[in-house]
Structures are given as C-alpha cells and as structure tokens.
Design brief:
five-stranded parallel sheet, binds phosphoric acid mono(formamide)ester, Rossmann fold, four-stranded parallel sheet, alpha/beta
C-alpha cells in the first residue's frame, strides 16, 4: 500500500504519471472511477483551497469526502506514542486511524508543525503516526511539506513552459509579519530540483536557509535530474534571467519557537517583497505563490494582477492533481 506523504517517496516516473493523469482529468473532469469510495479529510489547521479542491474532486470522481476538524467538530487527537493522555485530547491516533480505515478508503491530513521544537517537528511525526496506524492510503494535505502543492506547481509550469529542465527558477523568501511554516518552500525546492530546474534559493541571510534534510534531498535530485541548486542572499543577481519566480515566506529555523528573537532579523527585510522592479530583472518570468497571500506584503498588487502571475492556475491545478493522486492510490488510474 502506497501513501502520498512526500514526493521524496515517489519516483520521477511515478510523478510524471500523476501529472499526465491530472492533465487528462483537467480535460475530462467528471468520471465515476471512485464511485462508492470515500476519503476522510482531517484538518488540524485552516484551509480554503485544499478543503474545497479535495471535497469537489472526490465528488467529481463519484465518491464522497467527509471533513473533520479534530478539536472543533471532532474529538481532539493525541498523536504521540505511549503518553498518559491527561491533556485535552480525548482519543489517540491509533483508534482514529483504525476507525477511519474501517469507514473510508483514503485519509487526508493537514497538520502544521507546532512551532516549538524543530528537532521534533522536522521528523513529520504526526502524519507518520497516522500512516503507521491506518490500513488505507494516507495523503499529506500539508505538514512540513505540501506535496499536493508541488504537483500543482509543476503541472502549471509544464503547461506554461513545456519541459522544465534547465529553466531558471528563483524560490524567493518574502517578508511577512510573523514566521510561517517552511512546508511550501521545502516542497517547491524538492519538485523543481526533481524536474531538472536550475533553482536559486533566495533568502535574506543564512538563518533562512531551509532544513538540511531538504537541502540534501534537493542536491540528490539535482544529481539525478541534471538541474542545479544554489543559495543566494543577493536580490538582483538571483532574479537576473529567471524564468520562474516562486515566492513564499517562512521562519528562520535557528529561531524556531522564538518569534520575538526572530523579529530582530525579520524586521529588516520588508524589501524582499516581489514587485515590478524585481520582475523586470528576469527573463519575462512567470510569478506564482501557493496562496493565501497578503497583497502588498509578499507581492504587490501590480504583480498579482499581471499577465505573468499564474497563482490562480496553480490553485486550479490543485483540483486536478489531487484527483490523480486519489485515483492512483486506489488503483483506479489506467
Ligand atoms: N495553498 C493551500 O494549501 O491553500 P489552503 O491553505 O487554503 O488550503
């Protein structure tokens, strides 16, 4: 049984298959391939795109989706093994995963990291506990990576650029008033390097470089795919000649769990906003972001409203790629 927890578990051929199927589903959105099937969607954090696209996607394939928000409309869940459960959680993931596996054919989970201890959060232990106890395939709807977003980004780039190999992508850190999850940045790094892009990770200073497990995985991808990876702290040279600008804000890992200390760094970097002046340095680059995005904080109105902004295409493609993932995990892909 295969899960969809991280694209690092999937070969390039398998990912190509998912993207091909997603493209077909985009042309023919309705089919009954998952008639009678169901997915439980567990959201420990808010969502607009992920929830809508999974619910709608399952319906378009003839199945149903059940949305649960543990701690709100469902019992709170304990994910750690062997603990005395005298906190807020009423049940353990062992039972939650076991019960949902009896009812449903797939389980999706969104569980952002706790923003207290990166040495624990970097192990992705929450979704791994679910996968350990589930007897049906598990889909990652964003933890410390966001693999569904990765597929949507790559489908969008292939639609606009064709083959992505050796295309220059700048993955730029942007300012935001507080430190955010690194998941989408980790994921953009993984998928772009897996598909042979020349990736420049642009961030204000070394504290904002991503976790070494993702930097190392990206280096391995580069060796396999023939792309390249470099880190830059210089805005002008990073944007120069880029064909894709992908923006995200994230927290500095050395200050994880300590936002006040991180602010001493962060407050200096408002100028990392994506604006027309920076985009003019590029080779007519596409711009995208996973959304949600604070306008005139991460990117200007002019960039978001431009012809080259493909953020809505990427958001739409979440629907198509997730249908491909669900069909593939359930053996319904031809
Ligand atoms: N990009 C994304 O996952 O959006 P939501 O947080 O709205 O689901």
């Amino acid at each position: 049984m295969q899960n969809f927890l991280s694209t690092t578990d999937w070969s390039r051929d398998q990912l190509d298959g998912l993207l091909r199927l997603a493209g077909e589903l985009k042309q023919q959105p309705m089919n009954g391939s998952l008639k009678g099937k169901s997915i439980a969607l567990l959201f420990l954090n808010p969502s607009m795109r992920t929830r809508t696209s999974f619910e709608l996607g399952m319906q378009q394939l003839g199945g149903i989706a059940i949305v649960l928000q543990p701690g709100k409309d469902a019992w709170g869940v304990e994910f750690r093994p062997g603990v005395v459960m005298d906190g807020d959680a009423e049940e353990h993931i062992a039972e939650v995963a076991g019960v949902l596996s009896r009812y449903c054919d797939l389980i999706g989970l969104r569980a952002f990291p706790g923003f207290k201890d990166w040495s624990n959060d970097r192990t992705d232990s929450v979704i791994r506990a679910l996968a350990q106890h589930a007897s049906v395939p598990v889909i990652n709807m964003e933890t410390i990576v966001h693999p569904c977003q990765e597929l949507a980004l790559m489908l969008t780039l292939q639609e606009k650029l064709g083959d992505t190999a050796r295309r220059k992508m700048v993955l730029t850190w942007t300012w935001h008033p507080r430190p955010l999850n690194t998941a989408v940045a980790n994921s953009a790094l993984l998928i772009a390097t897996k598909f042979g892009m020349d990736v420049t990770l642009l961030c204000p200073e070394p504290a904002y470089v991503l976790d070494e497990q993702f930097m190392e995985a990206a280096e391995t991808n580069v060796q396999d795919s023939g792309g390249s990876l470099q880190v830059s702290h210089d805005i002008e040279s990073a944007y120069a000649g880029a064909e894709v600008v992908y923006a995200k804000s994230w927290g500095a890992l050395p200050f994880y769990g300590n936002p006040e200390a991180e602010w001493a760094l962060r407050h200096k970097y408002r100028h990392f906003i994506v604006d027309e002046k920076k985009m003019a340095l590029t080779n007519n680059a596409l711009f995208s972001h996973c959304l949600p995005l604070r306008r005139n904080i991460k990117a200007t109105d002019a960039v978001m409203d431009s012809e080259y902004c493909v953020a809505l295409d990427e958001a739409e493609n979440r629907l198509h790629v997730q249908k491909a993932v669900m069909m593939t995990l359930l053996g319904a892909a031809k």
